Amino acid sequence: MNIHRPLVEDQSYLRHFWHPVCTLDELKQSNPDGVGPIGAVLLDEPLVIARLDGEVVAMRDRCAHRFAKLSAGKIIGSRIQCPYHGWEYGASGKCELIPACPNDPIPKKAMTPGYDCRVKYDIVWVRLDSSWDLTEVPYCSAWDNPEFERVIVAQPYDWDSSSERRWENFTDFSHFAYVHPGTLYDPAYSEPAIVPIDRVGGEMQFFMEPGKDMLDTLPPESPLGSWTYRAAMPFSINLDIRLYKTGKPFLLWTTSSPVSHDRCRNFMIIAHTDAELPDEEPLNFQKIVLAEDQPVIETQPGGLSLEEVSLPTDKVSNQYRKWLRELANAASNGKEAFEHALLTDIVESR
Amino acid sequence: MKANEDKAVWNAWYPLGVPQEIRRRNMLRTWLLDNEIDLEIHRTWISVACGGRPLPVCERLGYIWTTLGEPDRLPQSLIEYYEVDRLAMNIWSTPLKCSGLRIVDNVIDNAHFPFVHPGILGDEEHLDLPPYVNEVDADGTLWSCSHQAWLPITNSVAEYTYRISDPYSVILFIHRPCVPGEVQRYDYLGIFAQPVTEEHFIAHKMFSWVREDWMEMRQLRSDQQWISVQDNYVLERHNPKKLPLGNGLEASVPVDSASMAYRDWLLSKDVRYGALHGGAS
Q1: Of residues A60 and B231, more confidently modeled
Q2: What is the ipTM of this complex?
């Protein structure tokens, strides 16, 4: 009898990374002023996101008074107002007004923790623990890149699965023939290559060349080409496709945000060089692909287990899992160990 | 002798090296069974040919494998190698001047530990080796099980099992401590010979150990290399360089039963490449 052995015992290392929590578009759509507040959950931590005095801020979504959600409140000037008793919080997370006792000193405990927050790629990013400051917002090759005529930041989508599972699903070479036959892949190509994998600057990098013959059988909107992956740990993937059809670049970028151990919110950027192509076309094609993946991935338990059987052809996920374990273990040994585990390069490809 | 006249040897898979090392050194040529082998390095794979004839290739256990013959199965499998809580690596790929059969024979011989690896794998205070079991399974694989030997570096008795499924390779299973009810796990050492000629080979040595906090990759690799250096000193001083088979040239004692079983197994497969048959010296 074997007990359940999780891949990683302690998930707290994930707090040291930047994770996406909402798009700027979602913030803009949140109310007529377009400043929020809106709620999000990251690593089981409820967050409130708002634009205060032009700056996007993130803080714990909880009024210090009676624990009501600030995301249900509203923005008053440069403060978030709690919907229950009107307490008002500034950008730092400190309470600056308590209407019931306006002339009393404000208790020190009347605050909600603020988190580092950035806007990049029209997406709001949060890092829950910035004490080591060793991580960056993941790389996206299409942003500020004139080679791409069109860059689409898609509406995020939620899955009842973990970010680890979503990442592995996106990079899994062996599932194409079974989950995406006729969409992304020809079932004849079911035995994938075992490719060199590099660790560079906190990214897993690898290259894959699917069979060119599949051009004859796949639909024209299927982005078949050579695939260059730059996957910033832990949950981001920049998949630069050089299309066989045209020789031009096509980018699929995805970053999964860990809401909890079995729930994730996924952000996607699609970029291409055809200025005439309506956005719906690549977006709808990706919807088909996701609809093929989601019901399968949601049957998996969220947490990765050491009891799962790994094959030689699972090299990408095997290496990914080993790196996640190294990062988790290193984080429990402090900043220097974490830096070493994250930023020591290992190159196989050259 | 011509390697292609030895079916058991010709129709086996052999490792040519670790893909990342092949890439880094831009290794375009090697030797296998007296044949020059050409490698071509592509971005996502490595192809292999002999005199313009493309050879089958696969990547397993961290190595690129090929065959000159027509094997009826893939290179030996060790699925546990891929368990993600393991530290797996090539210890080295190093040329040696004797038959590759000699290194398999060396690995399965526990009686040399106190003398060749004193203070590491054995010592002269603990020379007794309890009896162990040799058997050939339904797939034709030779198993030598339940070897117990004093291991000075852990100050305890270690248990080993050896698996030989090809003439030129062996995998050592080091039994890990386990409590009743738990599935037995092993640490693995693989020693795979790439026979260059009958009297030269390249030793590829890998390990796949369940990772523990104290493990440091460079130190482990260097410790294992040191053990191999001790073995190599002896291996290169054998005379003859080939492994004697069925000719009464050697003297054996009961504790050598694994070596005897290996020799019988090679004879049963009519292995001649790298072996010394008859009374010749």
Answers
A1: A60
A2: 0.89
